[in-house]
Predict the structure.
Amino acid sequence: MKKIISVVGARPNFMKVAPLHRAFQQYPDSIEHKICHTGQHYDEKMSKIFFDEFELPEPHFYLGVGSGSHAVQTANVMIEFEKVLFAEKPDLIIVVGDVNSTVACSLVASKLHIPVAHVEAGLRSFDRTMPEEINRLLTDAISDYLFVTEKSGMENLAKEGIDKSKIFFVGNVMIDTLIQLLPKADASNILSTLQVDKGDYILVTLHRPSNVDNDDFLRKLTDVFKTISGEKKIIFPVHPRTRGNMERIGLNGQLSENIILSDPIGYIDFLHLTKHAGLIITDSGGIQEESTYLGVQCITVRDNTERPVTVDIGTNQLIGTDLDKVTKTALEILNGKTKSGRIPELWDGKAGERIAAILVEQLNK
Ligand code: UD1
């Protein structure tokens, strides 16, 4: 029996570990799979709701590290995770995505000579001012198994000199979860709760420090939303980081009659909102992929993306941070100038099964 511990920390991690957990249940005689939650995200609406929706068990280990500066948060995860590894002596750990918990746990494990698998390896924005880019580079450099979602990831890892035998193109575990929960999402009544009709609203999410920690830019962005909301209602579930910054600069309360601000929304309702949006405006990584899978128009308010396939073949448009361009493109899309797209290779709902099969084979070599 081999013991594997998967790490989750922040909101975008939960939907990536759920399909892995399910896939490992197919190997009851050879794999014991445990989940460690670092507590990087801890609010009910940023964490607990997802365990329920994804039918994940209570985490076997909860490190409770909470918020803090990068160094404090990363260091606290490392200190607490090392204790878990000393006690549990797993045969492998799995980390997903690019958050601080990802790099912290992979670093601890690799120093203890415990193999590390990185799911969603190889993505690069080539922008080292993004904390996630640093996390991605470091995690990939010390991982033993690198599971890649799109072809660009294979090329990036090859250029960085990572041995080919460690790299596996398996598809996208986040899309596994999307496909699995689409029937439930289809039954959501969030649209009637928010009093909007299918196709007749814009969905906005924002949380990148480069967008929301800059007061002037955040203020100008909300002005853009006020302008666009003259065309269509906007639904804007506000991330805690963004909420804090908006309150600090006096943007609390309503922005305009046509902008619905809400708390963070659970996965199933959010998926329903994504599927039926007339347009999405975001700076999230995951939503670029989800909108591509669903063929929904997406404007990404960033100067770069680590997920180029969503732009090359998907419905995503990387518009950058020139806000006049954001407004212009949004109005064009709303007036029918849409971008067509296709679903990337291997985004078929089976990535988790592929990863589990590879790891079972590798661990039993
Ligand atoms: C983190 C990830 C980012 C990911 C995002 C998804 C890193 C470097 N960043 O950013 O890649 O896209 O999660 O949400 O790991 N807060 C709460 N409740 C919570 C969690 C956070 O109120 O449950 C507040 C705290 O004030 C905290 C702030 O949000 O200081 C930011 O949280 P943090 O985990 O530092 O980073 P995110 O911006 O969420």
Observations:
- The two ends are 13 Å apart (CA to CA).
- Residues 70-88 form the longest helix (19 residues).
